[in-house]
Amino acid sequence: MHAPRMKSIAWNLLGNTGDAEDAVQEAFLKIYRGAKTFRGGAAFSTWTYRVLVNTCYDALRRRRSRPVASSLDEAGDAGRGVPAAPPGADHPLRLALEKAVAHLKPRHRAVFLLFAVEGFTHSEIGRILGIPEGTSKTFLFEAKKKLQRWLGSRASVEGSVTS
Description:
Shape: globular
Number of helices: 7
Low-confidence stretches: 70-88
Mean pLDDT: 81
Strand content: under 5%
Oligomer: single chain
Order of helices and strands: HHHHHHH
Largest sheet: none
Radius of gyration: 17 Å
């Protein structure tokens, strides 16, 4: 029931299909093993998303300790079930946004993606990430400002090149 959304969240946080599938599978194992410890203080779905996000953070920490190709590198998804997009299919602004989002701090990126892409409310994000609702709002605001600044500077550089 939750698998498609969990895979989407994991892909957005980790940037490639293989790592996302691994994280979802690992999260399901953690959920199964820890189900008896679920206290019911939040919705079961909120708890599962929190387990998933923490699993993704663990994967990111492991990735940093053993650097490999960029997580959003197209080669990282080659042969992993991600269909190759036809040339010119990816809009340059979308690609720039994905690259900019990947450079956000992990908590800011998580809040931005959970809110803007996955459609969670700040209250839900707070429960999933274990942060106050106000902190979620602050992280979203800061993430949007950074993205605007980075994408704005990109547009001004491209505008001066084409002028």
